Amino acid sequence: MQVRSGLNRVLEDSNQLVLTASPGAGKTTMVPLMLLESLPAEAGRIIVAQPRRVAVRSAASYVASLLGEPVGETVGWRMRADTRVSASTRIEFTTTGTLLRRLLADPDLVGVSAVIIDEVHERHLDADLSLAFALDSALLRDDLRLIAMSATADAARFQKLLGDCPLISVETPPYPLETKWVPFREAGLTAGGLSAAFLEYLASVIERAFNAHGSALAFVDSIANTTRLVTMLTERGVPAFPLHGQLSAAEQDTALSFTGDARVIVATEIAETSLTVPGVNCVVDAGVSRVPRFEVASGTTHLVTVGASQSAMQQRAGRANRTGPGVVYRAFSESDYARALRYAVPEILAADLTEATLLAYAWSCPADLQLLDAFPVAALARAEATLRGIGALETAADRLQISASGRILSSIPTVPQVAHGLLSACVWGVPSEVAARVAAVLSGSQIFPRAVSVDSAMRSADPQLVKRFKALVTQWGSDYTQVIEAPKRRLSEADWPGLVVGAAYPQRICRVNPGTVVSTLKPVRFTSVGGTGFEVEAESELASAQWLAAASVQGVNGVVKLRLGAEISEPTALFLADAYRQVSRSVQVNNGVIKAIETVSLGALPLHQKPVSATDTEVYDCLAEALQHCEPAGWISIFKPTKPALQLADTCNYLHSLDDAYPQINSAWISENLEIFLGTSITELSVGRPCAEVDALTGLRLSLGWETAMQIEQLVPRVVKVPSGREVPVTIDPDRGPTISVKLQECFGWRNVPTILGKQISIELLSPAGRPLAVTGDLTHFFNETYVTVRAEMRGRYPKHPWPEDPWQATATVKTNRVLDSET
């Protein structure tokens, strides 16, 4: 009564509400009934969204039974391919996926008075999006009630998301619950999942619980492990039934029905929430969950087993004391529980966002949605690229938006890639029976341990899935014909399965790596349009293919292995991946020559190359990048300048060391002034003429400016006349600057050595034989201080040449003593 009055009071003041309650408090069944009593019939239906179909059926059936009616009257359900409602239905249970499509089709939610989204704490993508869409719908409808409900929700975050709405927290004391900690002696969770030893141990714990308490509900991570445990328990004489999402509704009902005989139900997370299992007051929890992990780089999703969150463990335990005192056996320790995450990682942060992104664009765009956690940037970009690849998104006015085909795909309750592959293939002439079988294989849960061809797998496709996909072709095929183009050539019948797969996943179309030799010893490697490398076992029927359309891949020890694919011809591969066809040009400078190559490729797969002439812009960009990334003197090896050009550059660099008003000529400076430096030569370079033919001297003068260039050349003369009367060439030494090399005797009496910007040029003094004796930048100091030592060492070695005691009074000469004596 307190909850009813509180709910009514809150909803009088606010149309939005967060409600939390302990497991077993009855929120899923009682809150809709409370709204039913408080809202007039003309207000419209009360929609209750659950994440799982089995929970929808269970909750609807229970609420209907409380009213003494069959499902379909006051209380009904609506799910894909299974609807039980009537004109008198007031409470409609549905899945969050079905609610999403309803919101897309009718944002105003005409005829709906309230939307309850249950188990929001699980953070499934459908639930997150449903809540975001419903919040937007509430802006259009000031009379629409919106309630987010859970047993273990992070209430404060949801309150903030719902505009700081009121919170009702129901702390109904549950029936007593006894916890038994029964950890395994070693790590049960390995890199490959749950170990065989742990499963044997878990079977023994379940058997012990069954013997002590009767009916029990056991939680494991995967469908495969539910089957293994049911087999183990049956062999031990324990009646056991599996419960998971791949079972038919009838099979699920069989597991949940209670005839009075004790039994064990081995379930995945499907039984965690909103489900009362009749006759069960004992739970055995393996403490693990199976979750999707999306690898953005490869675009593949892998299911991995991880430790369950505390929230999930609490929900599982809550199945034991819903109707009376219960007991939970936890096959892990108290410290394991304490270390577990409080809540599971939200799907939006770990899953493939392709379908969610399509629905977001069908609604508005991802950035505009009111979400607890925004779409991760990398995963969103990958999803957008995938959707562009199948034509579901397009760019208009520099904005990404949903296309006509994308609008159709968003209305179809299946993975958009599969829906596109199915409908496109039918438009292209593939019979609907074949296309539906391939789509059923792509959507099925069968696990292939080795690479299998779609041709083989489709023979055993699930008949119900085939029927469903054929119905989709009937419903949407004609509409799709209007939005995609038919091929210009007839496609091979042998490629029919591959057409469905390749249309669905064009980025996974792959080609055998060049130079591959098929061997029975080594796997064959393929590379996909998207750039991912796949391996195919050598013994597989697909190993000899040149082109494949990959349907299913699996990461194994860091290697992506193909598990399901279809061989296709090269023309079909080129047709399917045409959206990824691109022509690129690469321009490089090799040994001073500009070379341009044009490459035609399908995404990451190069098809053919040919040499082409580079454009002026490409030449400029290529040289600019090369100059920016090479050594400071690297420009010399590219342009191979003449001696006069090098002299000008060296001179300018020397002047820069004295006065930074002069530039430093290096690779970076050439890059900055490249357009002027090249002048009209850029056109000649584009047709393959070597860079060495560029007039570097003219280019430097133009880049410096003619006045500056002339000033530099005048500041540093090309030759210097020494006292002996000979003109000696000036060189620019990297360390000493302008330097002349001259015999010591030619410098006697030289007092006016030339200077540049106040600094004397360097003189390399040579012996009469032309060998270096000393280098000086101050000849006066040399003659006054050092000459006496040099004279003492050299006059005996070169006695035929003058070595006066006073070099200032001697006459500069290139002559020997004998010649000088003969002239006097």
Automatic annotation (TrEMBL):
Listed A to Z, the keywords are: ATP-binding, Helicase, Hydrolase, Nucleotide-binding
MF terms (GO), sorted A to Z: ATP binding; helicase activity; hydrolase activity; nucleic acid binding
Q: Which domain of life is it from?
A: Bacteria
Work out whether the entry's keyword set contains Hydrolase: yes
Q: Domain (Helicase C-terminal): give its ranges.
A: 197-364
Looking at the record, the residues that make up the Helicase ATP-binding domain are 8-171
Q: Does the keyword Transit peptide apply?
A: no
Any Pfam family matching the protein:
Helicase_C
Q: What is the official name of this protein in its record? A: Putative ATP-dependent helicase HrpB
Organism annotation: Gleimia coleocanis DSM 15436
